[in-house]
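$ run holo --ligand "threonylcarbamoyladenylate" --emit tokens
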Amino acid sequence: MSLNLKTDIRAAADIIRSGGLVAMPTETVYGLAADATDDSAVARIFEAKGRPQFNPLIIHVSGPDMAKRYVNISPLAEKLAAHFWPGPLTLVLPRRPDSDLSLLVSAGLDTVAVRMPNHAIAQALIAAVDRPLAAPSANRSGTISPTRPEHVRQSLGACIDMIIDGGPCLIGVESTIVKVDGEMSVLLRPGGIARDEIEGVLGAPLSSRDNSGHPEAPGMLKSHYAPCASLRLNAASPDADEAFLGFGATAHIHPYTLNLSESGDLREAAANLFAHLRRLDEICREENLAGIAAAPIPGLGLGEAINDRLERASTRELK
Ligand code: TXA
Ligand code: MG
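-- output --
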């Protein structure tokens, strides 16, 4: 690795450690990387991509040992990782309850998508930061994934802190995503490793998302996680038997209030959303409250994604 590249990686690691965003090359596509344990940094990813929803993100790790700090790896998952890591296979695995990953990374799901990229620069960056990197493809939402640094510059250049130039990506399509749940493996997204290669290692067919019987809808709140009783949206103020999810300056003093952002900052609000909902859910149970009232959130910028999540959480059929 050239001296220039080493210097770039050190600079990129400093940016990430202080909450910034760096586009990094991987063997599949360029990823927009941030510290996966930092809620605000992860919120910045969604903001930069202009994602209308908080889809869960993949965390990029240095190998199975780092992965084990955040997810539970079953023997079957271990086998797949041993064969395909480093490489374009992402495993969706149960999140460890003691994990300090941002809740926003997995969009409130109880699983986390993990992969070890097969790219010297991505690996060096993860090692330099010494934390898992959350990274979706480094393009604006709804556009084609970037496989060259200039694609990233055109799409996101203005809103990220640094692009590491690693030339064109060798694989150019995103990783294959497999959810491993006990003995069952489900193909969630076809990608850089073909289905039959994986089936060869498993010695069994992969289920498809459609016929698995329980489609995983990424980005959906799970019932264990969604509010206990009910979630009332656009509430100017809470009733006496409600907890309150506030936003911006709140005039009244209510005992069970958590504020997403007192200053009305949508990035801060996004970073707090999942953790606050979780805590209010606990408070509802502890205090036997009827539910949570949520203040109106402006629909601009990250507000669109926040409202999308709140609407899903308030609609019982979607839980
Ligand atoms: O090759 C790749 O996978 C690239 C490079 C940068 O690593 N990354 C990438 O990330 O394609 P992204 O965010 O564009 O796509 C990640 C996909 C999304 O479709 C998301 O729904 C799914 O992974 N995903 C993430 N966490 C999940 C989870 N816990 N359960 C189900 N799906 C999940
Ligand atoms: Mg993408």
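-- notes --
The CA atoms of residues 199 and 205 lie 5 Å apart.
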